[in-house]
């Protein structure tokens, strides 16, 4: 039996609010917390699999061309070496998120510097690493591959193009017009756990312990890659050491381990080096953007333009969706939006936390700050005046919309001064100090999800799905949700995730995990409640479950009388996705210091106020927001991929040279959750929160830099050299 | 006399391959996977262990160099049944998300609090002569060698301050 719902209608019943256990939404500590802090939670490379050999990936040292020959004999003669594998099924890129089919295969054709071309397998890691380092490879390089977006003729992404009214005319008659070019550089996910897999074959059945975000898609991707049926593949990812998009699709080490294990006839572990993770998984594309805003004397927008140029490899469908929230965030009847892709030979561009808004929103929010200044209107007030009643392009209603509340409540809590603003108002020793703000927006997504909930005769429950928890809190919110619905303690719910032997979840990505898998769990629990109501001789709507008993009556154990109840919940997004625009909204406020001599920026204080539907766990939701704000600081100040213009290789391919924020880069951070119920977002009224926290935050920091020292920097990241270049004085 | 290294109170012979880092020795040879490999280049701190009372990046040193040394890993600090005060505080304050950097953070914080007690100065110390205090800024500076990409820093600082304050009260 399956409890199925395809959501075609808003759910205004808010059924969860009538439950009585009182655990959902509460700041419950992570149920897997002690395993993580004591180092006993196993990640992909750490399963004690007998007799596993080690594989090390070899990557190309040319940008484009062909591998002509590999001197396997010399490497095979080295101590412990078992095999040199350049099987044509090896993948050379990671699959894009939700691809569900094999990514690019064939390691002899090279499309970017650092592309995997072979895997060396040996008895030990040290032996495999040594042989990989000494492997002699002969290439035929093809000269002239375009390496920089400016070298290639861009392709327009027509489904992103909007041409509504006449923006050029609106700009020419605007009381205040803003026309800015803003650039952002490439980003890396840089999850702390490098990509890793251990593959083992038992007969014709393959099991891979891997570090992947979306097993429901990854199983199809791996099966397709190997040319075998899905039912011969099992993927296990119980703990994932961060993903941020880099582990959405099946990646090169998973396939390499599977093929190597087949060829050497024993389990093989392949772990990417940190440099390889940078070089051959996913990058966020750099962007070149143009923002045009036409405002009237009252600060109301009647013209809105956002164009962006991004890049990717030839043949890749993904284009950084820079304009995603620009389509609906602010009004303006005359609109021009355009997204273009340049085909260049850098590693695959794909999803990195908050694809699109992470770089599009900060640029838009700088333009809004400039408009506020030109119009003489407070930046918070300017945004409040431009919140549209309906989606300005699709003419659809919003599912729920908390931007105004976030702006107002955030401003109040932060202590935002809405008085006249001019830069360089406070100098404290060597440091100019100032404040800035920005709106936050991130589209809401949901995906198809299945989960099985079983209520055992002893009154405890278990939930199973191949859904992953990549640090987002899935284990804990599912325990809370099941506990709330069935009226039992959180500790009495066992959550089993990350195994394709379980029902297919949605996977973790696009901030859709909690709302999607939570809805599947909710549906399964509703069905169990109906069964229990029947046993109790009442309607489900009347059934009150609390503390392991029907309220004022029999305990669950008595009611079950030795029977086990089990149901699979199956949630599918429905037509409702086409009849509403659904998004999380919020506001960022930042206070920074900028050194008048060095141009160094320090973020002393940040506040984020966010509305994202029902809060499922106050503690883990807050942590997601904190994480997003931390990423905002990195995007604003330090994070940039740098490519060699001559040979195209990634220059800063490690954590010493690619600067993610460190502890001291993050000052006081406050999170305000503006709770709401979104009837369209999901049957549990929740939206995503994994990405919203970095959708605009870098813009608040940029605007604070301007307010502090008068440097209007238009290139992210705002490194000291860039700040000094435009700082007055 | 055989070359031995003491890990969490147990003696082990040193590995035969001189190329084996202390980190790989712990993870591969001994199966102590609590110590994590994040970068293998001393850039992220996920592999932090405590050697003779001092925190080090175990990826940056060869196991063979530690003849006679006393190493404490995350497994030696506490267990799920009997966690250390810092481990409890990390859970309470949600000082982690994915959990991969966490053992390194906990080992680092354990030794770092001892460094403050011993009067070690840091870049954040305004005054090098008076008593060192575990202020938020001191903790941020001293924990900056342990990267957390999930961005749990604010909660990590809260967890460590909590334990430092309990320590002051004791």
3D architecture notes:
The complex is a heterodimer of chains A (729) and B (170). Chain A is α+β, with helices and mostly antiparallel strands and 729 residues long. Chain A is built from 17 helices and 31 strands. In chain A, strand 12 (196-202) and strand 13 (205-210) form a beta hairpin. The longest helix of chain A has 24 residues, at 513-536. The radius of gyration of chain A is 26 Å and the shape is globular. The termini of chain A are far apart. Chain B contains six helices and five strands. Chain B folds into two domains: 4-77, Beta-grasp domain (Ubiquitin-like (UB roll)); 85-169, DNA polymerase, domain 1 (Orthogonal Bundle). Chains A and B meet through helix 1, helix 3 and helix 15 of A and helix 1, helix 2, helix 3, helix 4 and helix 5 of B.
- Would you identify the CATH H-level superfamily of the largest domain in chain B? [2Fe-2S]-binding domain
Oligomer: heterodimer
Q: Determine the strand fraction of chain B and express it as a percent band.
A: 5-15%
Approximate shape of chain B: globular
* CATH fold-level name of the domain at 381-444 and 582-729 in chain A: Aldehyde Oxidoreductase, domain 4
**CATH T-level topology of the largest domain in chain B:** DNA polymerase, domain 1
| Regions with little confidence, pLDDT below 50 for 5+ residues of chain A | none
| Widest sheet: strand ordering of chain B | 2-1-5-3-4
Question: What's the order of the H and E elements of chain B?
Answer: EEHEEEHHHHH
Structural class of chain B: alpha+beta
CATH superfamily of the domain at 381-444 and 582-729 in chain A: Aldehyde oxidase/xanthine dehydrogenase, molybdopterin binding domain
Low-pLDDT windows of residues of chain B: none
CATH class of the largest domain in chain B: Mainly Alpha
Radius of gyration of chain A: 26 Å
How many helical stretches of chain B?
6
- Largest Cβ-defined interface: A-B, 63 and 61 residues
